[in-house]
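Researcher: For the record, we're logging two predictions in this thread. I'll number them. Prediction 1 follows.
Model: Prediction 1, sequence and structure:
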Amino acid sequence: MRLIKLHFDIPVEVRAYVFTNVLKKKFLILKNIKNNISIFIKIPYNLFFSITNKVSLYVSSFSFLDLNLFLKILSHKVAVLRFPFFIKLVLKGLGFRIQLLNSINDRFLEFKLGFSHSIKLKIPSESIGVTVKKTSVILSGFSRTQVGNLANCIYNLRTPNVYTGKGFRYKRIPLKLKDVKKT
């Protein structure tokens, strides 16, 4: 059996682990130390790992096209771990509140937005991280579309009033308010 040895550098803030489940399938776990975000990558059966500050790949009977594809996927996942996508929403208004609710199976965001009832919104997947303060929500994740769709759902719950500015707004987007008509 012929082995080919390759090296792949891992940044300082990312750790790599190899995990074998009950069905004897191997996974490479990449974890960011700063924000505790992890990614699982399934390892092909003929790929062997040695992990230090570099990931050493020992390849046996593996086509170079498949190896190239695996290395591209690995480099993309490491880049995403280093720089995940963030959106910050700010809620302005007297008495408006946000709360994160955790149940056994699901996570919910509960909003008190001045209506006669509170609104509960289910967070769609575990890959989206949510940080909640009293009047702000920070959404983070690997998928730009998932994070953007959830942010858009939250934004549409209470769009900003054009006169007072009460409601949700994106942190980095300035809000233009209309002048009140003076008589």
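Researcher: Logged. Prediction 2.
Model: Prediction 2, sequence and structure:
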Amino acid sequence: MLDPYRCYHGLAMAEAARRFRISILIEAPFRGWLDRAALRRLAARVLRAEGVAPPAEVGLVVTDDETLGDLNRRYLGLDEPTDVLSFGHEPFDPSTTLRAGGLRTEPFVTPPDGVRRLGEVILSYPTAERQAREAGRSVQEEAAHLVVHGLLHLLGYDHENPEDERRMRTREEELLGQRAH
């Protein structure tokens, strides 16, 4: 006899394996100012467009300038706030990076649950707000740009030299469907 719980549970697990897990933490002062669902859809769209196979997980964090400044100082040695930082859970290995797109081709270790944990994208709401005002767009649009930028970093893109910067900006604009800079 079929156990309905096991059938449902098995179907739910199979469905979860076909999706991305995108957790979003917006710190208290900034809650209600960004559309979480839109950011989640955008992140999933970027992951699909970049060829990331589910199940995969990424975290998005919206915080303040002080937190980004502290992280920038501790991990990059830069004593200044920034708009977005990415912290990958997969080690960067140039031998597994495609030069054409910058996408890592293999995860370091797949956890027992089979979920590829890409890392965290952390953005500063106050900086996004300032940059949005300067660019003449909404904070939601600026946050979307920062999320795409951060995700591309997690996937191996960078802007350390002019060619890499051009490739990354072009990809950001393709994914956002608008001029991103």
